[in-house]
User: Which sequence fits this backbone?
């Protein structure tokens, strides 16, 4: 089943708020629909957000019926701003919007039809590019996975979080495809349960052995020597390797360090933000308090209780064993080694 599909002028998204109970498809006809779907996390996961936003701009272009390219560009700028104001942490959103905006920055002399066509082609290219990057991450990353490994993962960095295949789950998938007889432990990932609802679902669909645990079971399993390695995705990686990912990732990295368990991050190079020198510059999204106080109609905590609900945390680079990207695997010292990967990424011409 596809996470994201653009056809006949509409963007179809597999509604991730309905999984695993229902496979519901939502239809976005406008860029505003797309922005709403991103904000409400019907589509989520850094690369999937980026791809959806790119198609959101295609919808914005489709809505324009006139013949003035400058008017179309004005509309695209407004759509870009609306889409950019949905979720602040995942850099793939801004990376994709920027990659699209370069088209109209260089559009001098193009007709409305030519610009709209170029925009649609680029959105498809971003989607294809994401899938290809994930497959490469899988192939490279699976080399780090020993036969029979017991792997812990957090949140969902799978096919659902990308255009397909996944990043952290891409590595897991590739290891499984190589016949490595791995076993996965999936943190349920409070408060929105991406691990329980999405990772468990994806792995079961692919018949990859998975055991669901509460977030607080992870440390106990490590203490019992029942975890061989941890692998997670990323929402933004600073130039020095500091990594923002789902809240709770930092705690896992500290525990991994204490128990001398390898801690890997897997992400496409589009998740690396070379404009920031450390994780201190990453904006951490704070979400609605009711995500913790309630589950649907069920009240979990007193209505009046004060809540703090950051969606992400930052794991400092010294706690990360290696960062697996489509441009290669970076190990410490990250500052130098990520620069090397950035030049490989530039050679590919995909980070323009
Ligand atoms: O809030 P979410 O569900 O969008 O958070 C997702 C994550 O933290 C993922 O690990 C990250 O985006 C990487 S997805 C390949």
Assistant:
């Amino acid at each position: 089943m596809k996470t994201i599909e653009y056809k006949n002028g509409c963007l179809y998204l597999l509604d991730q708020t309905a999984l695993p109970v229902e496979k519901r498809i939502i239809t976005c006809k406008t860029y505003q629909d797309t922005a709403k779907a991103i904000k409400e996390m019907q589509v989520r996961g850094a690369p999937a957000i980026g791809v959806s936003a790119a198609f959101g701009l295609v919808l914005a272009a489709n809505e324009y019926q006139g013949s003035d390219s400058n008017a179309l560009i004005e509309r695209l700028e407004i759509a870009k701003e609306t889409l950019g104001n949905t979720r602040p942490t995942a850099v793939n959103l801004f990376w994709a919007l920027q990659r699209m905006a370069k088209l109209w920055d260089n559009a001098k002399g193009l007709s409305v039809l030519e610009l709209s066509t170029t925009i649609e082609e680029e959105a498809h290219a971003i989607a294809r590019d994401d899938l290809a990057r994930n497959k490469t991450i899988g192939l490279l990353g699976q080399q780090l996975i020993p036969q029979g490994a017991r792997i812990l993962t957090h949140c969902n960095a799978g096919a659902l979080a990308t255009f397909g295949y996944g990043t952290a789950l891409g590595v897991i998938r590739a290891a499984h495809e190589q016949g490595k007889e791995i076993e996965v432990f999936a943190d349920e990932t409070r408060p929105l349960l991406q691990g329980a609802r999405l990772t468990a679902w994806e792995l079961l669909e692919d018949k990859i052995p998975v055991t669901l645990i509460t977030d607080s079971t992870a440390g106990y399993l490590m203490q019992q020597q029942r975890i061989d390695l941890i692998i997670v995705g990323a929402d933004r990686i600073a130039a020095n390797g500091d990594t923002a990912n789902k809240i709770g990732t930092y705690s896992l990295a500290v525990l991994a360090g204490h128990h001398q368990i390898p801690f890997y991050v897997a992400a496409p190079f589009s998740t690396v933000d070379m404009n920031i020198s450390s994780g201190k510059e990453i904006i951490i999204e704070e979400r609605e308090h009711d995500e913790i106080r309630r589950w649907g109609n069920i009240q979990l905590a007193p209505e009046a209780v004060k809540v703090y609900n950051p969606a992400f945390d930052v794991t400092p680079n010294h706690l990360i064993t290696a960062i697996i990207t489509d441009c290669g695997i970076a190990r410490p010292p990250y500052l130098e080694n990520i620069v090397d990967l950035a030049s490989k990424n530039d050679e590919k011409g995909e980070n323009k």
In short: Residues 44-47, 90, 155, 157, 161-162, 167, 194, 233-235, 245-246, 311 surround MRU (CB under 6 Å). The chain has a mean pLDDT of 97. The longest strand covers residues 10-14.
